[in-house]
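Researcher: Let's do a round of design. I'm pasting the structure tokens now; please hold your answer until I've finished.
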């Protein structure tokens, strides 16, 4: 919303002139008659005028466009001015309260005459009409300075009625009514100050201006938005800034993702009072992003000085769980290894928000070169025959070759190669290699490890 700063200034100038007129009437007669309550009412009106001056200065500052030092503009200077008005209200309330208490301790009967009544009646009427007009204009122009100032001005009407009632009691012979009404005026002024603080502090501390559910309802209706998060809003009710993150299909081009973000921005700017919207477009994570997850996990594993043996990613109801086989230094104690893996899991969850759980199986990892030995020719031939026989029983496998047999720490280590159809999916090929491994392990005793490497048929 474009704010009419000149109109706000005109309202403040007119209000200031009317407040000075009411102040002259109340203070002049109050000092002449010695009525503390009437002087209090005059001081209240005087501070109304001073707050107008503060408001004018704040509006002029707040109307300046954004610059390098204030990239979000100078709007909060108006809010600061409203808080300064609240401070003036508290000071006035304190001075009135201390003066009234002193008068109660040392009673003094003020003069009550027709001029006192006229000063209160005319001054109260001026301020009452001025406050109602200023409040209406403040809401129409979206200015918290005008609204805060108008609230004080309107309250002065009720203060004048209270003072008039107190002076009536003084005229009847109850001198204590004058300082008592002054105390009442001080309490009213303090209450207005509290209301002004509560209304303006949220904008200064960046309290959420809009309900996130309101923003979410708008974003959810935009076609192409898969999900969204980190919804934030701040600022005055007529100068709201929103920023949020939206997730889109990761297969979309950058241009398409930006188009979706632009539509989100356009719809949010249509909300009342919203003047600035920042939308961060992100790729929606899903099962197809398993390779990215694996790369991120491998990086975290390497940073911890561990080794990654196996990784499975599973998605259930939109949540991803990871199952890892992690190799640790065999010289570590269980507590040390467990702590290292705990740090790894925390790192993974912080870097991959889409991962809800990480389950790790700790295994030993060794960088040592293990001593191996060749087996006898007879054992080599028997194992080659067993591998060939096992491969013949598995449809899709052919020509087992490059069969190597080693003895490692008392167990046999067998490697072999075989041919499969090159068009076969990797998952299906892996299943064939696993089947051959198990068949060889069942046929050959004392086998520690069997590795099968598959090649496409030429």
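Researcher: That's everything. Go ahead.
Model: Designed sequence:
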């Amino acid at each position: 919303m474009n704010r009419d700063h000149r109109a706000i200034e005109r309202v403040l100038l007119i209000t200031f002139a009317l407040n000075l007129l009411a102040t002259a009437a109340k203070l002049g007669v109050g000092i002449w008659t010695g009525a503390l309550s009437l002087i209090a009412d005059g001081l209240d009106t005087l501070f109304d005028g001073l707050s107008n001056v503060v408001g004018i200065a704040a509006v002029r500052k707040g109307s300046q466009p954004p610059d390098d030092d204030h990239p979000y503009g100078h709007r909060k200077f108006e809010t600061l001015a409203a808080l300064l008005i609240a401070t003036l209200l508290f000071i006035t309330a304190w001075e009135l309260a201390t003066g009234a208490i002193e008068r109660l301790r040392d009673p003094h009967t003020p003069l009550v005459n027709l001029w006192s009544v006229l000063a209160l009646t005319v001054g109260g009427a001026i301020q009452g009409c001025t406050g109602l007009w200023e409040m209406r204009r403040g809401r129409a122009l979206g200015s918290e300075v005008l609204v805060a100032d108008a609230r004080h001005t309107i309250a002065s009407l009720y203060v004048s009625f209270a003072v008039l009632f107190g002076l009536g009691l003084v005229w009847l012979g109850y001198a204590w009514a004058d300082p008592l009404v002054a105390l009442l005026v001080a309490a009213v002024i303090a209450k207005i100050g509290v209301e002004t603080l509560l209304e303006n502090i949220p904008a200064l501390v960046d309290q959420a201006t809009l309900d996130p559910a309101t923003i979410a309802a708008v974003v959810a209706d935009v076609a192409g938005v898969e999900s969204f998060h980190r919804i934030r809003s701040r600022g005055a009710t007529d100068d709201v800034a929103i920023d949020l993150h939206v997730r889109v299909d990761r297969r979309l081009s950058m241009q398409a993702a930006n188009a979706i973000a632009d539509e989100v921005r356009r719809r949010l700017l249509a909300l009342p009072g919203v003047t600035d919207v920042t939308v961060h477009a992100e790729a929606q994570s899903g099962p197809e992003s398993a390779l990215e997850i694996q790369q991120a996990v491998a990086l975290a594993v390497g940073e911890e000085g561990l080794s990654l043996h196996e990784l499975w990613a599973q998605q259930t109801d939109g949540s991803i769980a990871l199952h890892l086989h992690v190799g640790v230094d065999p010289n570590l104690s269980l507590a040390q290894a467990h702590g290292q893996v705990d740090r790894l899991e925390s790192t993974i969850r912080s870097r991959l928000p889409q991962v809800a759980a990480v389950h790790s199986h700790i295994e030993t990892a060794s960088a040592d070169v293990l001593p191996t030995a060749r087996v006898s020719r007879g054992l080599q031939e028997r194992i080659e025959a067993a591998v060939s026989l096992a491969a013949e029983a598995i449809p899709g496998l052919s020509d087992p070759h490059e069969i190597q047999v080693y003895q490692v720490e008392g167990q046999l280590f067998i490697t072999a190669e075989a041919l499969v159809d090159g068009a076969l999916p990797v998952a299906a090929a892996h299943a064939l290699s696993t089947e051959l491994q198990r068949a060889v392990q069942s046929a050959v005793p004392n086998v520690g490890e069997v590795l099968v490497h598959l090649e496409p048929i030429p």
